[in-house]
Amino acid sequence: xxxxxxxxxxxxxxxxxxxxxxxxxxxxxxxxxxxxxxxxxxxxxxxxxxxxxxxxxxxxxxxxxxxxxxxxxxxxxxxxxxxxxxxxxxxxxxxxxxxxxxxxxxxxxxxxxxxxxxxxxxxxxxxxxxxxxxxxxxxxxxxxxxxxxxxxxxxxxxxxxxxxxxxxxxxxxxxxxxxxxxxxxxxxxxxxxxxxxx
Length: 198
Hints:
Number of domains: 2
Strand content: 5-15%
Strand order of the largest sheet: 1-2
Order of helices and strands: HEEHHEEHHH
Radius of gyration: 29 Å
Largest sheet: 2 strands, antiparallel
Structural class: mainly alpha
Shape: elongated
Helix content: 40-55%
Number of helices: 6
């Protein structure tokens, strides 16, 4: 059949969720049955993939219906409780998405502040809006995120200043040694905030 498009995964999930993950014809649920998405008006009869034309059905009910058009009364309406639960679920998902987006933005800001301090301490120059040629290469984003998450941004940036002093005094060389030394500084400062300066 030319022009037929499958129901998208997102639409399929939303229809399943709307119908409370049960067959709208017989009311059965998994694992007793396998659910599919059924077209109220079959594609063969001009029906589309709009959610209003889709319902959750078990394979048996769907096979029995074939391309027949059912009366609206044959489809049980969504109960107010199910609709309320669906709206609450969507609201929860939106709140979680907003929380994750805010957390991601804060992580990016903290990472940039760490990198700015590193660039300042290790004399990176700015070219085309990017830091270039620091005396010690920048740690990876994953390393920065882990340090900031474990020790906090203030402690991590203080540790960069201590690391830079040691580097200027030739106590350490190279990126890997610098990262290990930075971890050591932070561990010592965490266990002894007053004495963990070097």
